[in-house]
Specification:
2 strands; elongated
């Protein structure tokens, strides 16, 4: 639940209070064009994950249905995130240009590491949900 709140807060914060300044201009981390669909998608998925967490808390235990919903929500977040990362569409182009102009060569490595971390976290979370459901049967 806390992770969902942090993710939603960071998505909105990076747009409203851009954390990176390039040549005196504050730039959001994520490509502003993603607000047309993808960033709202991630916010909606995060909100649904919050509601899921509350439903799970009210139920009091994991079931296979909860595990399946958890896995689906993880996939709904991870698949587009990894796709955006893999295709170089997640970061603000102004930031990518500034990094490349400064001789930075770490963007591709960072993107790969980030995609792997997202995949591992979501896979572990899905596995853990099914493991907990199994233990409760």
């Amino acid at each position: 639940m806390i992770a969902s709140v942090i993710v939603a807060t960071l998505i909105v914060w990076q747009q409203l209070q851009p954390p990176i300044v390039i040549d005196g201009v504050a730039e959001p981390l994520f490509d502003p064009a993603l607000w047309s669909f993808w960033l709202p998608w991630f916010l909606v998925v995060t909100l649904i994950e919050l509601m899921f967490t509350l439903a799970l808390y009210m139920r009091g235990r994991w079931t296979y249905a909860f595990a399946a919903v958890n896995a689906a929500l993880g996939a709904a977040f991870a698949v587009p995130a990894i796709w955006l990362i893999a295709n170089g569409l997640l970061l603000n182009p102004a930031i990518k240009e500034a990094v490349l102009a400064a001789g930075g060569t770490w963007l591709e490595v960072s993107a790969t590491i980030t995609a792997v971390v997202v995949a591992v976290i979501v896979a572990w979370d899905a596995f853990d949900g099914f493991r907990k459901a199994y233990r409760n049967t």
